[in-house]
Structure formats: structure tokens, C-alpha cells
Amino acid sequence: MVRKVQLRHDYAFPARAVWHVVTDLDHLRTVTEGLLAFRDLPSGQIAEGQTLDVQVSLLGRLPYQPYRMRVVRCDGEQMTYSSSERGIGVKTWKHRLQVIPADTGSQIRETIEIDAGWKTPLFVAWARFLCRRRNPRRVKILRQFKNGGRPR
């Protein structure tokens, strides 16, 4: 059973700065803190063709389990990426994200296709919750950088 989650998030920050934050693995750790804990997650920007074999703990309290993330596409010019992921009870988690310049800053558009068998509705709810919780944390990171500085 495959279900799709579609989300949009507006940011009052330049698209390039937002792109940098959403593609930086160190920021992934920051924006999911308390919700997910990672082991073996490298640092730096994601890259097309990259495969990340990590250990993930839900809420940082449940036992760590293997999780694989493969970056299928990553286009910095178009500010879009897609990944294919699996693990911790998920058969497939296909994530597509695009950062789009807007009059007031930028917008993130995300689509996540999830197949977790009978648990799919639970993972759909989790995906919505997780993506919504990440955005205020991204804003906090972006606010630290004024005058178009690059977020670190």
C-alpha cells in the first residue's frame, strides 16, 4: 500500500540559503533532534549517487535500526533532490524536494511516497509530523545568518 504526502513550506529567506540548509547532513541532525537520532551519518552536503547506510533511533530512545538513504538525484542549479530510502519498518520512502524562489523569499515543495505495508498510515502521519517540526528549526538556523551569509 503506497501513500503520498505532499507538503509546502514558505520561508522569508533566499532560496539558495534554504537549499544549503536542506541539503546539509549536519543540519539534518539538528532539525530532527529529539525526533530521530542517527549513528554513522556523515557530515557535509548530499551528492547525487550517494548512499548513506546509517542507524536510526526513533525519538532517540528506541533501539537503533539500520536505515539506507540513496540520493537518486541532486541538482544544485534547479535546487531539487530525490532520495530512495528504506529501513525501520519502511519498505520504501521516496522523497522529492524542491526549493523555489518566491517574491517573499522561497518555498519548499516536498512529496514523499511511503510503503510500509499495514503500517503505512502510521508512517504517513509520522512523515507529516516530522516535516512540519523540521521547518521552525530550519528557520532558526537561517536566522543566524544575516545579509545573505551562507548557513553553516
- Under CATH, the topology can be stated as Alpha-D-Glucose-1,6-Bisphosphate, Chain A, domain 4
Biggest sheet strand line-up: 1-7-6-5-4-3-2
How many strands?
Answer: 7
Largest β-sheet summary: 7 strands, antiparallel
Strand content: 35-45%
Our count of helices gives 3
**Anisotropy-based shape:** globular
Q: What proportion of the residues is helical, as a percent range?
A: 25-40%
Structural class: alpha+beta
The chain-level mean pLDDT equals 94
- So, CATH architecture? 2-Layer Sandwich
Question: Distance between termini?
Answer: 39 Å
Uncertain spans:
none
Radius of gyration, whole Å = 15 Å
Number of domains: 1
- Which sequence of SSEs, written as H and E, runs from N to C? EHHEEEEEEH
CATH superfamily: START domain
What is the C-level CATH assignment? Alpha Beta
Description:
The protein is an alpha+beta fold and 152 residues long. The chain has a single domain (2-143), classed as Alpha-D-Glucose-1,6-Bisphosphate, Chain A, domain 4. The chain contains three helices and seven strands, in the order βααββββββα. It has helices at residues 15-22, 25-31, 120-143; strands at 2-11, 36-39, 51-58, 65-75, 80-87, 90-102, 105-115. It has a seven-stranded antiparallel sheet with strand order 1-7-6-5-4-3-2, with helices on one face. β3 and β4 (65-75) form a beta hairpin. It is globular, with a radius of gyration of 15 Å. The model has no long low-confidence stretch (mean pLDDT 94).
